[in-house]
């Protein structure tokens, strides 16, 4: 067999070996996971979730950029599209670990992967890239935050719709917010374990699977329940957001980058659905742990950090 064919076969066999077997249970057996006391406090791991094959070139570039940051100990791509041929999942940068999950569940975004060796984990969308300053500032803020807190750049909120007797999901309200999105957030490894392994959350995780939505809302429930406080909003550097619908339709990343995301497809129904998730999580847990936060930790004055392509220029998406 020619050398190049043997090498390609070896790569495919190695790639197939990292497929997660047994779903969440494989990460919650208490034996395969890292020792919490040995987790490094001075570095962080980036968990990148991937599903869309159209986004693979962008995902590879983003993974490589995060891997080059001096604070990042490891980048782990959790690929949750079981139908993707192994041959398409080659050519990731050498510093990036690729793992295929057993299902397409959005709960896979928070799997406490046994290769994680840091106390802090950045959970990031596959179309969002925080620059070096933004990542460093967010990590520093997390280090000085209350244990169990989420630190992020993209705020959202909730409120009780008294007329309908239901919770509603909204953009950040003037002066306050209660959630941060998984476009980019930093959390503790302990929260990954609690989210994925707590029996109390099994029914809520089933809602995420049924709706194919709301995993980030559930993580905000988990974090606020743990910390007793709301999340921490930070502002520093800049973040390129290819998936924001405010990008020009002819942006360099292409219209396909925007149409894959849940929020881009759902319109107003997406916001309604997320309000229903809040109401359902409240019912299942028997309590409302979400707490409002006020203000933000800033390095520089400005608006939401996402950058969009408008008229051939990268500007803040809210401009």
Write a brief structural summary.
With 319 residues, the protein is of the alpha/beta class. Helix content is 31%, strand content 23%.
Q: Which terms would index this structure?
A:
alpha/beta, GT64, Spore Coat Polysaccharide Biosynthesis Protein SpsA, Chain A, four-stranded mixed β-sheet, eight-stranded mixed β-sheet, 319 residues, single chain, disordered N terminus
Helices and strands, with pairings:
Blueprint: H1 3-17, E1 40-50, H2 56-67, E2 72-79, E3 96-100, E4 118-124, E5 128-130, H3 132-143, E6 151-152, E7 155-161, E8 166-171, E9 179-180, E10 184-188, H4 189-197, H5 202-211, H6 215-227, E11 232-235, E12 239-241, H7 256-259, H8 262-266, H9 268-285, E13 297-298, E14 306-310, E15 313-316
Parallel strand pairs: 1-2, 1-4, 2-3, 6-11, 11-13, 12-14
Antiparallel strand pairs: 4-10, 5-12, 6-10, 7-8, 7-9, 14-15
Helix pairs in contact: 5-9
């Amino acid at each position: 067999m020619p050398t190049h064919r043997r090498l390609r076969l070896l790569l495919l066999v190695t790639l197939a070996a990292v497929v997660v077997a047994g779903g969440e249970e494989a990460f919650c057996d208490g034996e395969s996971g890292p020792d919490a006391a040995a987790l490094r406090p001075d570095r962080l791991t980036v968990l990148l979730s991937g599903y869309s094959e159209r986004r693979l070139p962008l995902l590879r570039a983003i993974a490589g950029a995060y891997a080059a940051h001096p604070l990042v100990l490891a980048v782990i791509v959790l690929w949750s599209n079981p139908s993707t041929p192994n041959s398409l999942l080659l050519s990731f940068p050498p510093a990036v670990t690729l793992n295929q999950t057993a299902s397409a569940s959005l709960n896979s975004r928070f799997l406490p992967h046994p290769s994680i060796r840091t106390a802090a984990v950045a959970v990031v969308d596959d179309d969002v890239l925080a620059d070096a300053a933004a990542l460093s500032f967010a990590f520093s803020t997390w280090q000085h935050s209350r244990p169990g807190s989420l630190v992020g750049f993209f705020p959202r909120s909730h409120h009780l719709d008294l007329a309908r007797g239901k919770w509603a999901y909204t953009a950040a309200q003037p002066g306050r917010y209660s959630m941060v999105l998984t476009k980019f957030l930093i959390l503790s490894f302990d929260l990954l374990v609690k989210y994925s392994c707590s029996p109390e959350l099994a029914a809520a995780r089933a809602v995420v699977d049924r709706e194919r939505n709301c995993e980030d809302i559930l993580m905000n429930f988990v974090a606020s329940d743990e910390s007793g406080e709301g999340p921490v909003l930070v502002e520093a550097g800049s973040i390129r957001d290819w998936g924001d619908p405010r990008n020009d339709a002819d942006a360099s990343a292409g219209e396909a980058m925007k149409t894959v995301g849940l929020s881009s497809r759902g319109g107003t129904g997406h916001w309604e659905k997320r309000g229903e998730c809040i109401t359902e999580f409240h019912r299942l847990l028997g309590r409302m742990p979400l707490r409002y936060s006020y203000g933000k930790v800033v390095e520089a004055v400005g608006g939401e950090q996402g950058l969009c392509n408008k008229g051939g220029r990268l500007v803040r998406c809210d401009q």
